[in-house]
Amino acid sequence: MAYHWHIIFSFVFLVLLSFAAADGVQSLGSSDGFNGLRSCARGCYNGGSHDGSMLESKLECDKPGLGYQPSDNDCFCRPDLQEIAVRHLSTCVYTSCTQNQLDISSATQVYKDYCSSAGYTAAAPVSVAAQPTTEESQRQQHGQAPRAQ
């Protein structure tokens, strides 16, 4: 009979553990591609300490308090912050890995793949149309052709 309780307890523990693992805490350091990066590229994620901590700080996703606590994916992979993350990684890896394009594309792809597998997609780039100057706008309202330059 005690054997059955042990099995039931183990099952309940595993179920609870799976819920805890799925709470959305950043775990990039355990992703498939992260450990395959050269150390110069990994340093752009973690600054030599915890996986993702340097990037979390750049995105302002780091948690306050004593000691390192990984950020939530809701911030780390936030669609509108992904462009900032990719830009940071590109610039940092460019400098750290002696301008090696393969390292740059690998480091940025690891981040994109991680966020994609966590269910986040990058926001579409925002493009702003050029607005006519006040003088051009007034000329257009009055049906006049723009000035030749």
Give a summary of the structure in a few sentences.
It is built from 7 helices and no strands.
Find the count of extended strands (DSSP E, 2+ residues): 0
Main sheet makeup:
none
Radius of gyration: 24 Å
**H/E element order:** HHHHHHH
Classify the beta-strand content into a percent band.
under 5%
Mean pLDDT, to the nearest integer, reads 74
- The span between the termini is 93 Å
The number of distinct helices, counting runs of at least 4 residues, comes to 7
Assign the structural class, choosing from mainly alpha, mainly beta, alpha/beta, alpha+beta, or little secondary structure: mainly alpha
What general outline do the C-alpha atoms trace? globular
Low-confidence runs: 5-22
Give helix % range. Answer: 40-55%
Give a description of the structure.
The chain has a domain at 25-125. It is 52% helix and 0% strand. It is built from 7 helices and no strands. Helix 5 (82-96) runs antiparallel to helix 6 (101-117). The longest helix is centred in the first third of the chain and has 20 residues, at 2-21. The N and C termini lie far apart (93 Å). Mean pLDDT is 74; it is low at 5-22. Residues 127-149 are annotated as: Disordered. Residues 1-22 form the signal peptide. It comes from Canariomyces notabilis.
Q: Which properties best describe this structure?
A:
0% strand, single chain, 149 residues, mainly alpha
Give the topology:
Elements: H1 2-21, H2 39-46, H3 53-58, H4 73-76, H5 82-96, H6 101-117, H7 134-141
Helix pairs in contact: 2-5, 5-6
